[in-house]
Amino acid sequence: MRKLKNSELDRLDVDEFKSAKKTPLIIVLDNIRSLNNIGSVFRTSDAFLIEKIYLCGITAKPPHNDIRKTALGSTKTVDWEYAEHTIDVITKLKSDNIQIVSIEQAEDAIQLNNFMPKANTKYALVFGNEVKGVSQNVVDASDMVIEIPQFGTKHSLNISVSCGVVVWDIFSKLKVTEV
Fold first, then answer.
1. Other C-beta atoms within 10 Å of 94: how many?
2. Which residues of 74-89 are buried (b: 16+ CB within 10 A; e: fewer)?
3. What domain range includes position 142?
4. Which residue, among 160, 150, 71, 72, has the nearest Cα to 109 in the 3D structure?
5. 77: which of 4, 25, 26, 43 is 20 to 30 A away, CA to CA?
6. pLDDT at 178 over 90
7. Average pLDDT over residues 101-124
């Protein structure tokens, strides 16, 4: 088995990405501290054709060298917008009939493996601060909370890992419902 060269991967260029049909997912970053996490979320969002990222509160904005290192150019492909208050973004998205899903450990959370996205529904996935998680007022305003099942001794996953796990899971389930 031979590894493929980057030139053999048949990836989209920036213009093709911009005009490609997007996955009906929006990412909302609620007060993310780590610039490397932010860059990683951009890169994951590029990989799965995410519609848009909202950077909220203390979440840093491109251009920034530490974001650039992990984003690898995806800040130029994935649409993004900054908002001072996460709850304002949530209110706007809800008014556009977008389902708000906080990724958090909470009472009555749906386990990710049990969540099945509905066809023709757009979801906004909210990922929270590395220490405090998703703000309680955002959890309160969410249509649902999804929790990633975990079985070890730690209480959480890194936010960039959580984003990758959740986006891949929902992306793959949406692809099944499209067939």
1. 15
2. bbebbebeebeebbeb
3. 20-148+155-178
4. 150
5. 4
6. no
7. 97
